[in-house]
Input
Amino acid sequence: MKRLLQKVKELDGKSYKLLKTIQGKYDGDVFSLYMDYIQGDPFAAPSKIRVAFPFTYTSLPEELIDSASRKSAFEDFFAREVNLQIKKRAVSRMGTGKGGMITIDAPGQEVLKRTAVKVTEEHIEIRLSIGLPANGRRIRGHDTGKLLGEIVPDITKKALTHFSKEALKSHIELSDDQQLIRNYIKENEFICFIANGSVLPRESGVSNKPLSKAVPFQSPAAYEKTIQLSKEKTVTGFALPKGLTLIAGGGYHGKSTLLHAIERGVYNHAPGDGREYVITDQSAVKIKAEDGRSIHGVDISPFISNLPFEKDTRSFSTLDASGSTSQAASIMEALEMRSKLILMDEDTSATNFMIRDARMQKLVSEEPITPFVDYVESLFKDQDVSTVMAIGGSGDYFEASDHVIVMNEYRPYDKRAEAKQIASEIKNHRKKTAGTLSVPKMRILDRDNFKKKLDRKEKVDAKGKNTILFSRHMIDLSAIEQLADTSQTRTIALIMKHLTKGSSKDSTIMEAIDEIYTEINHSGLEFLSPFKGQHPGDLALPRKEEVIQTLNRFRRD
Output
């Protein structure tokens, strides 16, 4: 570190590009500093550094990282601690551009496997982005030395020594509890669990934080289960069995809020989120109508057939799908990726795909669309795929329903018996137009198409959470609502790039993605980074489902 500080002092006032010469490893008193990437301009993307400490520096037992879920929770906790120390230090900007900036890929409400902090039995490594100070495009040597020799070490040391051991213990124990609940719902054939007292409403449409003074969730008695978490600890709440579940109720009474909580239950949540004990089958996929999305080679014939001019829908492709066609394709894609839970909201679905009443059946006899209501029973009985649907405008699903939850002022009530009684008293007289729904054939990954779209620079990047730039081709992910973080989108972009390197010509989409995830489980997310042995970039692990949904939206024009 003395050598580094002397070097930046000598560079004071010189051309900013000369900072490239400080790239390398420097040893401090109890840490090592890795200057992996040095920005070429004070206004360019910030520099990437790593600060590594021996694991013993934390004075913590190794049992806190003795499983994959514990390790992820441990890393998540310290990423939050580093971010807290950065905010406490509140470093003023130094000169022009990004000078003085210090950031870490800080977690949000969800606990995701990230590259921000990396822990092993030997060391704990903190990955930061920093802006090296400049005046114009001249090096501010004194401030650079202060940033690297004083501020960064102080922030990272405090994060590893000034934390609450009780808070860390609670963070790890919560992760253990969440894993136990996931095991419980799988073993007992439930699709989700919501603890009594959970806070489901969010602060606003643009905030993921819990709403203060919200109505706490309370399970209907018929669905209440108690799960043993340890000898002294249990949790009681709403355990939803498999089948078709309707979430009904008036507008603004909490239908979509409950569905959204179930949708996000595929991830663990941090303490204080309110949804810590909202746990959902991790294969759950949210389906919606997406006007204008591209579809490639999907068998949508169960839902859409007998099109004019004898257009074949067994391997359907389009660059501009309608709402009903896109929703049909999304369901068949979900079945192809072996999802066991489909989530839908009436508000974001195509009406002509969801329902078709007796009057319309009588008026229009030649209808290419078979509505979802005609297949939803077969979906569960023949394929063991459950559906949870927020619905307020049609009772056509009452006959097929296994569970009916009515939301009233954000409180759930069991109304299955009443729904069945209504269905028996008020006949809808519609004709069922479909039988058994089968799982579609696995499609082969079109690697050549990915390779053709990648230019010589092989540039792929995330532009926010909802957009991937694949060379010059933009992929819109705004309809993939279960993506939680921009760093997940960045990881998907790298996975897509990795797929162009594959040699297998006949692997299915699922096989190709499974192969990548096997390597991630073995080597970490760093496996995807082009910077081997360096700062891997800000990455967070998406589910396979989000990766495949992205691949399905890649245009083949």
Notes: Residues 396 and 428 are 7 Å apart (CA to CA). The mean pLDDT is 94. DSSP finds 14 helices and 27 strands in the chain.
